[in-house]
Amino acid sequence: MEPQEGITKAPWIAHPPDPIRLARVIRELLAALGEDPEREGLQRTPARVAEMLQEVLAGYWMDPVDLVNGAIFEVEDNDLVLVRDIEFYSMCEHHLLPFYGRAHVAYIPSGRIIGLSKIPRVVELFARRLQVQERMTRQIADFLETVLHPQGVAVIVEAAHLCAMMRGVRKSQARMVTQALTGVFRTDPRHRSELLAHLRRPLEK
């Protein structure tokens, strides 16, 4: 697949960070907190945290063109496509604490569809980085707009934020809901109603 205009406009870094440098920074953080980085329980913590950060922030060095990998198919149908309840984990850029939840991603094709497995991977691409939920929601929608040029895209994200659970207001049951709507989902109430009807329907076990 040829790179498309705008497909890499989200932050993308070609190579993961230096794990030795990351570990050194974590060691300095432990010392700044008054801990002893040489005590038994912390000796390997800098290396563990460096490895963890490369995993949970891997979206920065996922190549978005490789992610799509040609999985775009021509179709004549223009019916709703919905992938719901996509689990994700992300990191709040304000406090470096996790937020996690579910994403529902829908679009109405305009001659092109994307492979089913790619939609959860698009969510991962934008979740696994330092984020705010509002921007992540919009980035997922914009990415699908750029790749598919559909009639419309809808992304709805529900998440719990540890920065509001462990600190600050300390409300463990609070959930944040964000949405990004484009095309017919924004302009035509019938398409929004169809989407919401599907989301209200319990999943069959």
UniProtKB/TrEMBL annotation:
<keyword id="KW-0554">One-carbon metabolism</keyword>
<dbReference type="GO" id="GO:0046654">
    <property type="term" value="P:tetrahydrofolate biosynthetic process"/>
</dbReference>
<dbReference type="GO" id="GO:0005737">
    <property type="term" value="C:cytoplasm"/>
</dbReference>
<dbReference type="GO" id="GO:0005525">
    <property type="term" value="F:GTP binding"/>
</dbReference>
<dbReference type="GO" id="GO:0008270">
    <property type="term" value="F:zinc ion binding"/>
</dbReference>
<feature type="domain" description="GTP cyclohydrolase I">
    <location>
        <begin position="24"/>
        <end position="199"/>
    </location>
</feature>
<comment type="pathway">
    <text>Cofactor biosynthesis; 7,8-dihydroneopterin triphosphate biosynthesis; 7,8-dihydroneopterin triphosphate from GTP: step 1/1.</text>
</comment>
<dbReference type="GO" id="GO:0006730">
    <property type="term" value="P:one-carbon metabolic process"/>
</dbReference>
<dbReference type="InterPro" id="IPR018234">
    <property type="entry name" value="GTP_CycHdrlase_I_CS"/>
</dbReference>
<protein>
    <recommendedName>
        <fullName>GTP cyclohydrolase 1</fullName>
        <ecNumber>3.5.4.16</ecNumber>
    </recommendedName>
</protein>
<keyword id="KW-0479">Metal-binding</keyword>
<feature type="binding site">
    <location>
        <position position="95"/>
    </location>
    <ligand>
        <name>Zn(2+)</name>
    </ligand>
</feature>
<keyword id="KW-0342">GTP-binding</keyword>
<dbReference type="InterPro" id="IPR043133">
    <property type="entry name" value="GTP-CH-I_C/QueF"/>
</dbReference>
<feature type="binding site">
    <location>
        <position position="92"/>
    </location>
    <ligand>
        <name>Zn(2+)</name>
    </ligand>
</feature>
<keyword id="KW-0378">Hydrolase</keyword>
<dbReference type="GO" id="GO:0006729">
    <property type="term" value="P:tetrahydrobiopterin biosynthetic process"/>
</dbReference>
<dbReference type="GO" id="GO:0003934">
    <property type="term" value="F:GTP cyclohydrolase I activity"/>
</dbReference>
<keyword id="KW-0862">Zinc</keyword>
<keyword id="KW-0547">Nucleotide-binding</keyword>
<dbReference type="Pfam" id="PF01227">
    <property type="entry name" value="GTP_cyclohydroI"/>
</dbReference>
<dbReference type="InterPro" id="IPR043134">
    <property type="entry name" value="GTP-CH-I_N"/>
</dbReference>
<comment type="subunit">
    <text>Homopolymer.</text>
</comment>
<feature type="binding site">
    <location>
        <position position="163"/>
    </location>
    <ligand>
        <name>Zn(2+)</name>
    </ligand>
</feature>
<dbReference type="InterPro" id="IPR001474">
    <property type="entry name" value="GTP_CycHdrlase_I"/>
</dbReference>
<dbReference type="InterPro" id="IPR020602">
    <property type="entry name" value="GTP_CycHdrlase_I_dom"/>
</dbReference>
<comment type="similarity">
    <text>Belongs to the GTP cyclohydrolase I family.</text>
</comment>
